[in-house]
Amino acid sequence: MTQTIETAVILAAGKGTRLRPYTHDIPKGFMKLGEESLIERSVRILKENGITNVIIGTGYLSEHYENLARQNGLKTFKNPKFDSTGSFHTLACGRDLIASDFLLLESDLLYHSEAIKKLIESEERDQILCSGFTQSNDEVFVEVGEGLLKNLSKDRHSLGSVDAELVGIWKISLDLYHALLQHHEDASDATSKDYEIAITNSNYPVNVLKLENLIWCEIDNEEHLKRAKTEILPKLS
């Protein structure tokens, strides 16, 4: 099968306040686990899977990502209002660089390369990657209906069913991205909301790819960091 996805967008504008003091002088993506930082690991995995165009949406301490981009042939764009807006606004700030279907991921993820491989291999153009239940604390739960994303929430009781867990890696078509940009123009809460909510509320059909036993974690706080080092990283080595 000919690979149709050659672009990835990494959202990396956040301040990472729940990981202070680690993020006092560096963005979250530059925290090292093992020999590599999170962002270095992601870029390597993406390139190993044929992604030739890596774009990073920056904000907090953006110069770190800009230096990395210069050294590694990457691209960056900046959300100048990163300290007062949500991830949806950061995604919208990339409109001048995003010109094709792309993978969308977050900078604070530690994950097995199978996540990228399976998304690229899938024939679906719009897809959310999910896993089985990690019991990791602070999870985002996903409700699925007829194979499509129906809803997601940290409050599992607000969902009609709890079918999977959000990983934070997506495949987004240019058509969906343009629909999201229009929503960003029209919605009164566009600057404050997270991109996951914007996609979920777009009424665009997004397929669900569930990898039950995917090895991965998000690193948002000290508890997550400890789990990443003791439980997740050893399984990835």
Describe this structure in words.
The chain is 30% helix and 26% strand. It is an alpha/beta fold. The chain has a single domain (7-236), classed as Alpha-Beta Complex (Spore Coat Polysaccharide Biosynthesis Protein SpsA, Chain A). The strands form 3 sheets. Strands 1, 4, 5, 6, 8, 9, 10, 11 and 12 form a 9-stranded mixed beta sheet that branches. The mean pLDDT is 94.
Features:
237 residues; Spore Coat Polysaccharide Biosynthesis Protein SpsA, Chain A; 13 strands; 26% strand; 7 helices; globular; nine-stranded mixed beta sheet; two-stranded antiparallel ribbon; alpha/beta
Q: What's the name of the CATH homologous superfamily?
A: Spore Coat Polysaccharide Biosynthesis Protein SpsA, Chain A
Q: Regions with pLDDT < 50 over 5+ consecutive residues?
A: none
Q: Termini separation (Å)? A: 29 Å
Helix content: 25-40%
Q: Please tell me the total number of domains.
A: 1
CATH architecture call = Alpha-Beta Complex
Determine the structural class based on helices, strands and strand pairing.
alpha/beta
Q: Give average pLDDT, whole number.
A: 94
